[in-house]
Please model this.
Amino acid sequence: MADDVLVLESRGLEAPLAHPAPPLMTVPATRIPTLRKAAPPQTISSLEEERWIAVPVHPDPLPLKALVVLDRRPGLQTSLGKSEDPLGALLGSLMNFPRSPQRQRTRFELASVMASKTALLRLTADPDVHPEVLADTLLEGNAATGKVG
Model:
């Protein structure tokens, strides 16, 4: 499992800007034919049964609309809902270094703005639930609420 890093740019009391991620992703080799039949993705590298491919990204930073916390533990039902403790989830996820009073204050201020200006959703599922089901759950929740862009 990989940890993704989202780079945020504070804008005071407005939702922070989210900078685009690198235009790459890793997918199982067997999934390549189903990604885009009209225009297959460019394979950058192959490693055993995985492929690193180029993917389109938005070139400019955009205001952050929502964050989804994925909670996968045995026995959990697949569900999507609003986080009960957005500030706690955010503070636990923002980088905590360097450890200084100024950095702690900056983290708290950014988390506070994000908790009030962006949707923080919690997507739960058993580890055996296929990623496509998770994506469908998120997209259906988006269509129902209009919260995620």
